[in-house]
Amino acid sequence: MALTREEVLHVAKLARLSLRPEEIETFTRQLNDVLGYVAKLQEVDTKGVPPLAHVIPLSNAFREDEVQTGLEREGSLANAPERAEGAFVVPRVI
């Protein structure tokens, strides 16, 4: 099923895209190439192939939670450009 120029213009309108005339021809060709590739993929026999969420097996790569000591207040504020009452001073955001 090949897309026509009018169908590409309709899709562009739905996507709120304005296309130049040379872009219309380019996108028509490119979208038809994509649809041709999808049609070729649909020909592949996938009976007996289980659905996958990912092509390679994945396992959780997170580390175990461990309690650690944080920075001391004075150490964390040592390089602060401005501080007051033991906290960072930052610009006011409204």
Explain this structure to me?
A two-stranded antiparallel sheet has the order 1-2. It contains three helices and two strands. The protein has 94 residues and is mostly helical. The chain is flat and about 70 Å long. It has helices at residues 5-14, 21-42, 73-77, and strands at 83-84, 87-88.
Q: How would you summarize the topology of this molecule?
A:
Layout: H1 5-14, H2 21-42, H3 73-77, E1 83-84, E2 87-88
Antiparallel strand pairs: 1-2
Number of helices: 3
For the largest beta-sheet, the strand count, sense and barrel status come to: 2 strands, antiparallel
Cα-atom radius of gyration: 28 Å
Percent of residues in helices comes to 25-40%
- What does the overall shape look like? flat
Kindly report the spatial arrangement of strands forming the biggest sheet.
Answer: 1-2
Strand content of the residues, in percent?
under 5%
Low-confidence runs: none
Could you spell the SSE succession in H and E letters?
A: HHHEE
